[in-house]
């Protein structure tokens, strides 16, 4: 056995030689992203510049603390990176640094939200967020009922450590039921109301949220994760005039790396210290400076006129999709969209969201099953959520989204035929997908269509698997 000194230095070996198995899996995933239609509303394709930051030497550095107040040495460069990120984040939302501050260290959206609750609330304080089946996020306080234990079951840590009461969308209109929220808030007296959503196709009424908060002494937090790119571009209303604190992820419509940010008002309430303390040392350790650099460079892009045009196109594409599906006789929750996503109610067709998700997957169309207004159970959602940000990044426009609507229509028609044979069980339905000729023909059309558009982040000509139909089955 060679001594440590005699052993080969392997720190510069490329991944493909160091770990061919993992390299191959990454190449398979690149192929999947390139030849599929990515319609998950929370996803996007980040740029090569961002990916370079993520794969940079910054991943080596510990930087606990804040710029110029760190617990480790060697942070003179990292301090500048984090300050650049903070500066661009405030600029992206037109915020005065005297009035607003930002913490760019949260590892992702969920930790960002929990840091706000940790910093600004006491354990067991009351919060109200949009219910998960109404389009809210888990971290807004989701709980359910356990039949087995015949009791309330806290699903999110938010509902473990705080008392949460949800508000909902109206089952018929699909719009947030602000009147009910107002009535419930006047009884529940929450310490905080959380605005924001993961699956809601409309803009928010911040004035109404503010009035309800003021009438009950509650703080107003906006989680703008899904729409932060559209807000930065001025394509949706800004929450900053009326909210006390605003959180976001950076990898959805903002199109950066996976990370989170918290914006807080700087005033006599001392949110700055409370939130910074909650992020570190209360919840996190060393910030991921490679992510922070990725966010910083993405924010540079967000500040350009091109990004505004991108955000406008995202909205136009979502509308084109909703309009085309509606003209084909399908039902969109709330009657359409004014943001980046569409909620398609499949109940009138007699299909479940789960079956539709599966058939789309088999045809290389990636979307997710989702509750739609009026659904009783989150276990069998009645529809799907479809988002435009990722494919708009691949330069698709309205006509392309109309073509996508036609592909989805084909999926629905094949699904109905298969369901006649399979009966209601998902397992039996899925068993019919493999080897089905109509699904295979649709997949080929989807692959050819998808691969005709540019791919951000990496060059398809340098991929291991360049066949539009995907890697060989032995891969
Ligand atoms: N907030 C909202 C509104 C979201 O939709 C999501 C994720 O989908 C999150 C927070 C959580 O973000 P992450 O998955 O980065 O923790």
TrEMBL record:
Keywords: One-carbon metabolism, Pyridoxal phosphate, Transferase. One of its GO terms (molecular function) is pyridoxal phosphate binding. Its cofactor is pyridoxal 5'-phosphate. It comes from the Eukaryota. Its EC number is 2.1.2.1. Interconversion of serine and glycine. This is Serine hydroxymethyltransferase. It comes from Seminavis robusta.
